[in-house]
């Protein structure tokens, strides 16, 4: 876990106006900066960035947070990735465990990465310039139905035919960074006493720059213009690029994914570019390799609905099966994975051009749910009317079900499978060696969190949690007994426990903006988000919490008054919650047919405590706040 003290130091050094300004055009408006919100469509600016508070807030859609959460929400970075990105910008090293023996120092790694990114950017600029003067390449793109605007949007270029064209782009063609970046290849052996021969990797190909989630060019895909092998040639594995974890078009598709509510995973670069032009900017593609769990993890940082589109032939079914296996570890109840199989004569590009965008959108809406595809895969080709066929289906289902988290979705699939094979749910679970209801452990700092179903917090619990979220410093004012009451709140005890733990970690620096950031990676974020948005729906609250100026004496005085009032309300709510729990406990005890002497003494003690609380609550009034 990254220490809270480091996160606070980092946010104190970062200029949020500069971070947000890379993506949003901001104009000075009084003490703050204003712009059009990047999280929803609007014509008049309601998006505010406060340089003093180091916070952003949209009064239109309620989006809010610090520089960390902005990179998470807008750039699609994970929590650790966002922290690392900001730390690099201000020259800080993120605290880590001791490096493995022989591993390069962080400073050396950063220098190597920045050098390679610069090399790839210069190569990308060179290829783009070459495309403008290559009529054959331009004609090829026109035949594929692409416009100059879409080619410019994706940064398409052209690698001319020839062996050493990149000499024109780099002063030193022998620079090792060109080799490390995968732009050039060296022959195995040079002539005796001579240097090894070096030549360009990409020649006479349309160039597709592959970007990471920060928009940096980290690799290329090159497509031949006519016939030739391989049809697509990718950059090799480099310190910047790993095929198994990157997706083509993800950087360009971020806004399209957010607007559509899902991501469409297709099989090729050209599909991604063509679909973006035809009205489907939410498409991405794997890089000539099978879909991996890392790919799925990256996609889930953007959306909770993933639709895979594959050809309907045998190769497409095999690719879909590998995608299914990559999704299973991430198949939580609030996520949706679907599989779309187009007719064998079509890919997504050709289908849209022949049948229209609406017809393709209808196909996407009818895509096969993961549960249906899984059961279809394990039962396909089996003689399900025979015991041997049903046994074989269970044999194939076992490793797939074991990869899934123990949640409601897996339970539903087990039910459906049990019906297909004519067995009971318990028999299927036992044969597949599944422990129904077992929980899955997960490190939320290292991967996309397994979000839980939204648990609505209502009534007195809602009031208590709202106060803690607005002013996290209150958590450090509570007694051990008061925090114990909240942590043991039955259904919502876990939620209160998470907030109180963060309050303690933050200490004197406990603040709404830090709390909101940290909870974004919580599996219970849906529950927290409801209350945070409710808090910020009142403009006065939003301004007090996010545009607060610690140098303004009037604001400081108002803040102190609010905290004192909220602490009183919070303690009153805790007493009410404790009173309700005592009533429930006593009701349970007195339902028993007979009580032992110890149980009776315990009930009498609880009754005295309840009566004392009842008198206090009556004196406090119906609002639950002492007058």
Automatic annotation (TrEMBL):
Database matches in CDD domains: TOPRIM_DnaG_primases
One Gene Ontology term, aspect cellular component: cytoplasm
Function of the molecule: RNA polymerase that catalyzes the synthesis of short RNA molecules used as primers for DNA polymerase during DNA replication.
Record remark: domains: Contains an N-terminal zinc-binding domain, a central core domain that contains the primase activity, and a C-terminal DnaB-binding domain.
Annotated PANTHER family: DNA PRIMASE (PTHR30313:SF2)
EC number: 2.7.7.101
Subunit structure and binding partners: Monomer. Interacts with DnaB.
Leading EC class: transferase
Keyword terms of this UniProt record: DNA replication, DNA-binding, DNA-directed RNA polymerase, Magnesium, Metal-binding, Nucleotidyltransferase, Primosome, Transcription, Transferase, Zinc, Zinc-finger
Stated name of the protein: DNA primase
SMART domains reported in the protein's UniProt record: TOPRIM (SM00493), ZnF_CHCC (SM00400)
ZnF CHC2-type: positions: 37-61
Origin: domain of life: Bacteria
